[in-house]
Amino acid sequence: MISVAEALDQLFALVTPLPAEDVPLTQANGRVLASDVTAMRNQPPFAASAMDGYAVSRTLIKPGQTYEVIGEAAAGHRWDGTVGPAQAVRIFTGAPLPDGADHVIIQENITRDGNAITLDASANDKPHVRPAGADFHAGDVIKAPRLLAPSDIALLAAMNIATVPVTHRPIVAIIATGDELVQPGETPNDDQIIASNSYGLAALLANLGAHPRLLPIARDTTASLELAFDLAADADLIVTIGGASVGDHDLVGQVAQAKGMDRSFYKVAMRPGKPLMAGRMGNAAMVGLPGNPVSAMVCGHIFIAPLIRKMLGLGQTSAPRETHPLAKDAPRNGPREHYMRAHISTNGVTIFDRQDSALLSVLAEANCLAVRPINDPARKTGDAIDIIRL
Ligand SMILES: Nc1nc2c(c(=O)[nH]1)N[C@H]1C(S)=C(S)[C@@H](COP(=O)(O)OP(=O)(O)OC[C@H]3O[C@@H](n4cnc5c(N)ncnc54)[C@H](O)[C@@H]3O)O[C@H]1N2
Ligand code: MOO
């Protein structure tokens, strides 16, 4: 059995970053910027007022000074003219500052009488002027790769970038396998259960920026599995769930290899997730996940998520870890790296007692996985432990 780190290295070797496509700005959120983009303009393009008030030259500013109001500048409507030393232009937030003015006195700090304003004691607080290019300049660059968030979308819009180069979303075919499975919403017979981890994985993949495609459940027959692989042929990544172990009905590896899968590895020294397999299949990478619901989800976080990030152009990194103190003693670990459902709070990390890989309810209670190295001895409250947030 290979280690988790070796398995991840071999998985990374199966995929390359996907090509770029241009999308409208409205579809760029959550996508990965594929190449650097450059601002088309300065923001603001002119020195602008930051407040509602009066634009003046700062030369005469002092309490009691009076000015004659000679015009008005609003956002989108500059005042064309030059402001003299004892003159003021009524100005509103976002309006271009007129020539001759370098200061805005907020309207709360003056008294107005007809066309005359008089400054009160706190007139000279700050200039309230946003210099041209204060936010960014034409030619400023947003570097790729970058996972675009709403704040980036606002910045791209301000830069007048209406079409954004992003990495293609990896298409991931998800094949749940097993005679015992029906889809949520269907009526199972007495021996059946509902396919669950396929839906959890689809949600995880969508959150990562991939395009999950849930295929019909494959039955435990060669013909049904072959058909499922045929339906998945155009995917970037094929993920099977179940049928990976050593039972008489565990046919996934066999059928995949008959379909031309070039296997990289089978079995990883981890818990849960031991019967993991991976390889190349046609133009796609193929990962065979163990069927136990929690095993499939844990492998999703530990292996599939880093693979998707690499395909999106975000580099080759394992799931990020943090180190925190234990809030409760933890028993010794065995010969496989153990990813244990746990809860982290300000008190530290509490590893749950029940770790059977069939228990999705325990996974749903967890907000992290505590990582126990191979043969880690028993740990005491307060000892440091690595976690991966869920
Ligand atoms: N003799 C051995 N038996 C098992 C071993 C072993 O080493 N020797 N390994 C165990 C481990 S560890 C795991 S994990 C499972 C993995 O087996 P498979 O990948 O072949 O999975 P299945 O047998 O198809 O299913 C296991 C379990 O999970 C349920 N399942 C499967 N798919 C789904 C799904 N999409 N949604 C919800 N539940 C699913 C299935 O009904 C089974 O209960 O093998 C152990 N056995
Ligand atoms: O490794 Mo299995 O994935 O323990 O449940």
Automatic annotation (TrEMBL):
<feature type="domain" description="MoaB/Mog">
    <location>
        <begin position="173"/>
        <end position="310"/>
    </location>
</feature>
<dbReference type="GO" id="GO:0005829">
    <property type="term" value="C:cytosol"/>
</dbReference>
<comment type="pathway">
    <text>Cofactor biosynthesis; molybdopterin biosynthesis.</text>
</comment>
<keyword id="KW-0501">Molybdenum cofactor biosynthesis</keyword>
<dbReference type="Pfam" id="PF00994">
    <property type="entry name" value="MoCF_biosynth"/>
</dbReference>
<dbReference type="InterPro" id="IPR036688">
    <property type="entry name" value="MoeA_C_domain_IV_sf"/>
</dbReference>
<dbReference type="Pfam" id="PF03454">
    <property type="entry name" value="MoeA_C"/>
</dbReference>
<dbReference type="InterPro" id="IPR036425">
    <property type="entry name" value="MoaB/Mog-like_dom_sf"/>
</dbReference>
<dbReference type="InterPro" id="IPR038987">
    <property type="entry name" value="MoeA-like"/>
</dbReference>
<dbReference type="InterPro" id="IPR001453">
    <property type="entry name" value="MoaB/Mog_dom"/>
</dbReference>
<dbReference type="InterPro" id="IPR005111">
    <property type="entry name" value="MoeA_C_domain_IV"/>
</dbReference>
<keyword id="KW-0808">Transferase</keyword>
<dbReference type="GO" id="GO:0061599">
    <property type="term" value="F:molybdopterin molybdotransferase activity"/>
</dbReference>
<dbReference type="Pfam" id="PF03453">
    <property type="entry name" value="MoeA_N"/>
</dbReference>
<comment type="function">
    <text>Catalyzes the insertion of molybdate into adenylated molybdopterin with the concomitant release of AMP.</text>
</comment>
<comment type="similarity">
    <text>Belongs to the MoeA family.</text>
</comment>
<keyword id="KW-0460">Magnesium</keyword>
<keyword id="KW-0500">Molybdenum</keyword>
<keyword id="KW-0479">Metal-binding</keyword>
<dbReference type="InterPro" id="IPR005110">
    <property type="entry name" value="MoeA_linker/N"/>
</dbReference>
<dbReference type="GO" id="GO:0046872">
    <property type="term" value="F:metal ion binding"/>
</dbReference>
<protein>
    <recommendedName>
        <fullName>Molybdopterin molybdenumtransferase</fullName>
        <ecNumber>2.10.1.1</ecNumber>
    </recommendedName>
</protein>
<dbReference type="InterPro" id="IPR036135">
    <property type="entry name" value="MoeA_linker/N_sf"/>
</dbReference>
<dbReference type="GO" id="GO:0006777">
    <property type="term" value="P:Mo-molybdopterin cofactor biosynthetic process"/>
</dbReference>
